[in-house]
């Protein structure tokens, strides 16, 4: 059971990577690789090359990129989309998702964190 490694888009708070790691998950930020200026499709490609699941706030952009990729038979290691309105809620939800999911569960999937309960 391989747990996903998260790649945090440039809009995701930097403390998420450290907080996720404190909870036992591997996480990286765009800032760590100086990728802040890359467009969303390049962010997903960067994560995909490393077999990392992307966590981002650009719901419409990443959802469209995912659907275009499906039409072109492009695979990815998962996309987790969140709302930026409440950082505590945004942080609790991926913890629940990561606890219950493997990398294979997320592969080629788009998960909206708004659908996950705050347990």
Could you characterize what this model shows?
With 119 residues, the chain is α/β, with parallel strands linked by helices. It has one domain. It has five helices and five strands. A five-stranded parallel sheet has the order 2-1-3-4-5, sandwiched between helices. Helix 1 links the parallel strand 1 and strand 2. The longest helix has 14 residues. The two termini are 23 Å apart. The mean pLDDT is 88.
Summarize the topology.
Layout (H helix, E strand, L loop, with lengths): L5 E3 L6 H8 L4 E3 L10 H10 L3 E4 L2 H13 L7 E3 L5 H14 L2 H4 L3 E3 L7
Parallel strand pairs: 1-2, 1-3, 3-4, 4-5
Number of strands: 5
Number of domains: 1
Taking the sheet with the most strands, its summary is: 5 strands, parallel
Please state the CA-atom Rg, rounded to the nearest Å. Answer: 13 Å
What is the residue-mean pLDDT, rounded to a whole number? 88
Poorly predicted regions: none
Give the termini distance in whole angstroms: 23 Å
Helix content: 40-55%
Q: Which sequence of SSEs, written as H and E, runs from N to C?
A: EHEHEHEHHE
**Tally the helices: what do you get?**
5
Percent of residues in β-strands: 5-15%
What strand line-up does the widest sheet have?
Answer: 2-1-3-4-5
Quick recap:
The protein has helices spanning 15-22, 40-49, 59-71, 87-100, 103-106, and strands spanning 6-8, 27-29, 53-56, 79-81, 110-112. The chain has 119 residues and is an alpha/beta fold.
Features:
119 residues; alpha/beta; five-stranded parallel β-sheet; 5 helices; 5 strands; 41% helix
């Amino acid at each position: 059971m391989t747990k996903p490694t998260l790649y945090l888009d440039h809009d995701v708070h930097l403390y998420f990577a450290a907080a996720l790691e404190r909870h036992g998950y591997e996480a990286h930020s765009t800032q760590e690789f100086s990728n802040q200026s890359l467009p969303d499709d390049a962010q997903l490609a960067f994560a995909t090359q490393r077999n990392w699941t992307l966590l981002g706030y650009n719901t419409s952009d990443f959802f469209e990129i995912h659907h275009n990729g499906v039409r072109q038979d492009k695979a990815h290691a998962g996309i987790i989309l969140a709302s930026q309105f409440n950082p505590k809620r945004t942080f609790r939800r991926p913890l629940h998702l990561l606890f219950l999911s493997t990398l294979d569960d997320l592969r080629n999937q788009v998960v909206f964190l708004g659908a996950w309960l705050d347990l």
